[in-house]
């Protein structure tokens, strides 16, 4: 139960955050208020859920509470216009072709519609072949679903778009309303409260167009996904005795499928059954005298069958804002289900939704989801990315910075067609946080924000196939060369199992201390040299650490070596350092080692250059500089560089390293500290000014030949 103070907080949010126009039923948009109400009333249970320890696994209602995110109205419009709207406009183009996409979108007043860009001849042939069947598409036949509908925001706007289409086809509003709720719209959710709000939202929208709709007995296709975990199959025996053997067999299968219905939700897969036959048989039981024992069993069976029918049916258009929840929060049952059913996308619920419902669209149909941006770049989603690029066509992608959706991470609206058009150029663009300071962007796409039309086959040219839609032809060509891992092998090191026990700052020890060794652990942004603060306990060949239950002893042959290290996790730019003495290391401060006696100076000069920063905007735009991303960097062998330029680079790097080392050692945190510079140069300027002037001068000078080598800008 909510506390009185919580109710006061909700009311304050409604007064302060929601435009008065949203309450004005004469101006439209009032249904959005239900979404805001749901979000605010869901705040307390959400905070309770996410405040649980990281080891806590979310189940059932906790999943709904922890993952509900309200989708801003303009993003909903973008999603629906560029999938459902796109389907219908492509139908009109296929049917007569007298008007362009842009002209048709203007007629419907779809302000966020993105017309396809110019296509090569090969793509035009592919599109024509794919869309021949669209010519005969009837509006009454379009199947649309939101499989994680929340409060029904997407369904309500889809209703408006469908109404626009019906009216353009000559239907009356009254007739169109009945067809939309019976033929077109469907929705599912695991949260009963969300289902109730969605049902209410859709019916209120229907009443807006047909004032008599509430007086007619309509059953709309919006359901809460049932759960049978608390039901014993034996309790259905009294019902099974009334049904045919075939129907009993199917019902038993469905009861087993929905055992985790409230947890697996719309990720469940249901085979094709004769659902109408089963419903008809159940309805036929009403003609006889029914016991109080039978009635709830019949109702439960119908509930399961109706939800199963929606899960089994293919759709022309799927649109949703799916739940975002990583595998670390999944219950054992959900984690097992993810690994077995969605091995390519098991890392997060949202990626599993992308896989599940992308394949649920009809050939040429559209699936549209707003998700975390992580699927576009991270190695944990690589198999999923490659599967998408091999099986589907990216029609549109709107990439949004942190906080564009009011959440502290980047997101993306991805619109896929369930067909592969190998030569098609998709439309890509970016929305920055500064573009929505007034709530919505002034125009879409925004000039200068990485707007590009490119063929998705280009992404496969970059290792890991990141969705690097803003890359130029020169960048793709650069990645066709050899990669860094062909010259330098990167390794992750020790997982101590308990850093408090096994790691110490050097000044906490009396050195030399037998069995304690220098240790690299990433650390703050710092290039060239430094962050040499830790020592690790490796006494008796690491006996105590090896005995620690949670320890992970990796790559022992490479421990206590010279190499290049860096900070794997950062809030800004990457920074690489040369360990000129032997170090142990871990996964936060991984290291790389040359394969064929290549020069560490040449490698670190490249890694600390602007060119590497530029390449990493494609490989790791999420600022995650883990081993996988770094090893995929393109790399030029020293042998292809002229002797003069190579010598110039090596000299500048050597000078910069020496300067960085001296600067690090002039402060007490360095183990090699001897005397503070102010004591030696009391009348001189601060040495840090000298350091930065030298380093920055060398950096600028070094970047000149490296840029010239790559020619990427």
Share of helix among residues?
40-55%
What are the segments in which pLDDT stays under 50 over at least 5 consecutive residues? 1-11
How big a fraction of the residues is strand? 5-15%
Question: Radius of gyration from the CA trace?
Answer: 30 Å
N-to-C terminal Cα separation, in Å? 59 Å
Strand order of the largest sheet: 3-2-1-4-5-7-6-8-9
Q: How would you state the average pLDDT, rounded?
A: 87
For the secondary structure, the number of strands is 16
> Which oligomeric state applies?
single chain
Q: Tell me the number of helical segments per DSSP (H or I, 4 or more residues long).
A: 28
Globally, the shape reads globular
What structural category do the secondary elements indicate? alpha/beta
Largest sheet: 9 strands, mixed
Provide an overview of this structure.
The protein is of the alpha/beta class and 713 residues long. Mean pLDDT is 87; it is low at 1-11. α15 packs antiparallel against α16 (294-312). The protein is globular, with a radius of gyration of 30 Å. It contains 28 helices and 16 strands. The chain starts with a helix and ends with a helix. The strands form 2 sheets. The chain has a 9-stranded mixed beta sheet, with helices on both faces. Strands 10-16-14-15-12-13-11 form a 7-stranded mixed beta sheet.
